[in-house]
């Protein structure tokens, strides 16, 4: 039961802090661009390495049929 009350208290505090900000600052926070989810989850290097590998791979050509 205390987990629920702690969570509600946290949400209420965060909401109150956000609503007490000036409107200009709230607008700027919404406009600020977030980093991609891949970077947030895995850091910078892993998504970059996968992207380089994915774009650099060759599509294998099917061998020509010989009759």
From TrEMBL:
Source domain of life: Bacteria
Pfam families in alphabetical order: YqzE
InterPro entries the UniProt entry points to: YqzE
Protein's name in the database: YqzE family protein
Species the sequence originates in: Cohnella rhizosphaerae
């Amino acid at each position: 039961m205390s987990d629920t009350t702690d969570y509600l208290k946290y949400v209420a505090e965060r909401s109150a802090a956000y609503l007490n900000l000036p409107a200009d600052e709230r607008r700027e926070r919404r406009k600020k661009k977030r980093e991609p989810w891949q970077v947030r989850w895995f850091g910078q290097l892993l998504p970059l390495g996968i992207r380089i590998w994915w774009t650099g791979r060759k599509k294998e050509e099917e061998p020509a049929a010989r009759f």
